[in-house]
Amino acid sequence: MKKSFFSEDQWIECWTAPFLRRRTSGIRYALGHDCAVLHHSSSNQTDLVLKTDAVVEGVHFTRSTPPSLIGRKALARPLSDLAAAGAVPRAALVTVGCSNSIHARRLQKAYAGLALLAKKLNLHVVGGETVRTRQLLLSVSLLGAVAKGRSPGRSGGKPGHLLFVTGKLGGSWPRRHLTFNPRLAEGQWLVRHRFASAMLDLSDGLGADLPRMARASRVGFQIDPKRLPLAPKTTPRSAFTQGEDYELLFSVPPRQVALLRKKWPFSTPITEIGRLLPKAHGFDAGGLPMRGYDHFR
Amino acid sequence: MKKSFFSEDQWIECWTAPFLRRRTSGIRYALGHDCAVLHHSSSNQTDLVLKTDAVVEGVHFTRSTPPSLIGRKALARPLSDLAAAGAVPRAALVTVGCSNSIHARRLQKAYAGLALLAKKLNLHVVGGETVRTRQLLLSVSLLGAVAKGRSPGRSGGKPGHLLFVTGKLGGSWPRRHLTFNPRLAEGQWLVRHRFASAMLDLSDGLGADLPRMARASRVGFQIDPKRLPLAPKTTPRSAFTQGEDYELLFSVPPRQVALLRKKWPFSTPITEIGRLLPKAHGFDAGGLPMRGYDHFR
Q1: Within this chain, do residues B200 and B277 fall inside the same structural domain, yes or no?
Q2: What is the reported pTM?
Q3: What's the 3-state SS for chain B?
Q4: A·B CB contacts under 8 A
Q5: Which member of B22, B44, B111 has the closest CB to residue A15?
Q6: Residue B80 lies in a domain
């Protein structure tokens, strides 16, 4: 069977099957979550968080994308996953693939863009690798840390929990997908104060990512399209399906919502968009299509 | 300036310049060593070790390479770096790049080969990523652990320290570069017993890797070509320059050598091949050329 018959989710499932069969006590979350969260045997306070992510020419950016923004996005994407885990990023590994003909200046600018964001976050690039590939490719692996047992993952959502998103949705092309700020402080705060029962970052769009959270939590959901916080010139439909928002989606137990609203210390808005329901209810987004952006197709 | 004018070392230097300028107390070794070794703030016993490495079609394997061996090699290469750090591998992230046209079975077999080696080592694949690339590519990032402050790095060699290698050198093509066993137990043992003042794994060949160790340690060296432990059908020259050996090269203070020989518990041989000398002595390999395999060219 050819690969092109599969979606990204199906491929991940197919490849990771040999690994998923193994259960182990040292790993809290792994495949199927935004990040892997590991118990660290010699620490009583900290779980370690791992994430890898790659951007490729022709898929995540084009030949005309400013190279400093390519480097920035290569780091910002996995940082957004660490944000969803409530983790503080500690170290990055950067793998660059490029052809022999690419100009040195383009690569140096990509690296400089990455280094600038890393510096802003006091995150250290501690290693890397260069390989020869036909397309320009930047792959970033991150190590982070989070208070032991606190990272919510995707599977803790319960029927009745209310669904929130940070920021505005939609309209991330042509520019915002290159310049977004990963919601690290927001995610860390939500985890530190235990508001989020489940959390993920919206990379493929609510229409793809919300069903993932619901499946992991074994629940259904109901979304009110009229409540979606729309970026300028966006329809609910495009905000729901376009992806590349890099906002946080999280569920909150109803008794916590008033306190969350009262204590929320950021200028980034949060918006209640719906609620989790028993699994039998299914997925209901008021008629919006249950799909998002599939980087793989 | 075009990239093709640079060697791999020059490129690493060029790209990493923005990161090397920053010094930080939380990092013992980073760029320029086989692995990054990080202090873990909430642990008094353990340093964390990070490494990333990639294999690409047309560079590290061909279209006719058995796919299970591609997967195996993708994991075994960075494991060899962890071996040189004396680290125990804990978790792996795997990024796969492939085109739409590649067959599912080829990829599944590559993953199965990787999973098999991981299982043998009780190493967990905790996450990954799939991207669309024209050539098949597997990138593996590893997290490992080593006793605090014990990992030798490349820079601890002193004039007078004796140089050893594990195993045999040369002749790794066409097969052994795909089937080698990373010297994890040997590296962990050497570090646990503090025999190695500096250590690295031979991926590009002695002719490239030994000068790297010498430069990092600010010393010279003298190698006796007649003492190189040769694989069958290999000349000293090809053993010195061909690369892909994945054996350990390490330096040992002279007062430790007798004890090392007496206590060495492995069937893997170790061979004394020369010694480190004051920097002014320069690099002397008895006429063998000071170069190795450059994956980048």
Answers
A1: yes
A2: 0.89
A3: CEHHHCCHHHHHHHHHHHHHCCCCCCEEECCCCCCEEEECCCCCCEEEEEEEEEEEECCCECCCCCHHHHHHHHHHHHHHHHHHCCCEEEEEEEEEEECCCCEHHHHHHHHHHHHHHHHHCCCEEEEEEEEECCCCEEEEEEEEEEECCCCCCCCCCCCCCEEEEECCECCCCCCHHHHCCCCHHHHHHHHHCCCCCEEEECCCCHHHHHHHHHHHHCCEEEECHHHCCECCCCCHHHHHHCCCCCCEEEEECHHHHHHHHHHCCCCCCEEEEEEEECHHHCEECCCCCCCCCCCCC
A4: 246
A5: B111
A6: yes
